[in-house]
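User:
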Amino acid sequence: MALKLLHDPKLGSLHVAGFMSGSGTNLRRLLELQKTIEKNEGASPFKVVVIFSNDMRSKAPQIGRKFNIPAILHDMRAWYKQRGANIRDLVLRIEYDRETVKMLEPFEVKLAALGGYMAIATAPILQSYIGVNVHPADLSIKDGEWRKYTGANVVLDAILAGERTISSSTHIVEVDVDMGRLLMISAPVKVNVPAKTSLDDREQAERIADEHQERLKEAGDWIIFPRSIEDIARGKYAEDENGLLHYEGKPIPDGVRLTE
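Assistant: Predicted structure:
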C-alpha cells in the first residue's frame, strides 16, 4: 500500500503559520522547540514563518517581536460587525477565511498550527493547509460510534464522568469540529479529587476542572502540540489512499499514544 508523507523533508523546511486568539502559550512552546532544534542541529525541520490572530486583544504582536516573526491581525469581531452579521455565521466565515489565506500567501505556508485559535476554520483554510489542533481530552474515547469528549468543557465532562485519568490529543483539523484524524495522545494525567469535595457542587467541580486543565497543559498540550508538528516535518506521518494516518510506516487509527 502506497503511503504519502504529510510533509517530505527532502522538499525543505516545513513552513508553519501559528494561528492564535489569546495568550499563545501553545505557539510559544512550538517556537521554543524550533529554537532548541536550531541550536542543537543547526537548522529545524519546521519554521514558523508568520503568526496570525483573529483577535486584536491577543498577544500575537508581542510574540512576533520576541521571536522576530511577522504577526498579522485580522480582527474577526470588527469584520463581522462591519457586515452587521453574527460572529457565529459560518457561511460568512468562508469569506473571512478566504481573506486570511490571501494574507498568508506571501509566506508559502503548508501547515497551520492552531494553538488556542478560538474560531472554527472553514474550507479555505482546510483546503490550503495541513491544520493541526490540540484538544484537552483523549479523543480516542468513544460513546458508541461518536467521540465522547468534544467541544468545550471537556476536562470537566471527563471528571464528572468518572475518568481516572485525562489526556490531550492532537488531530488534523477537518470539517467536523474535534473529529479530525488523530495524530498523538499525551501521557495520562491522574485525576485527583480532594476528600470532602463534592462534584455535585458546580462551583467546586469547575474549580477542580480548572486545576486539572492547567496540569494538562503542561503535561499534555505543551508536549504533544510541538512534537506532532516536529514529527510531521521530519516525515514521520503519512497517509494511505484511504486517508488512514501512519506513523513511521505503521497505521495509527487512534493516533500515537505517549506513555510518559
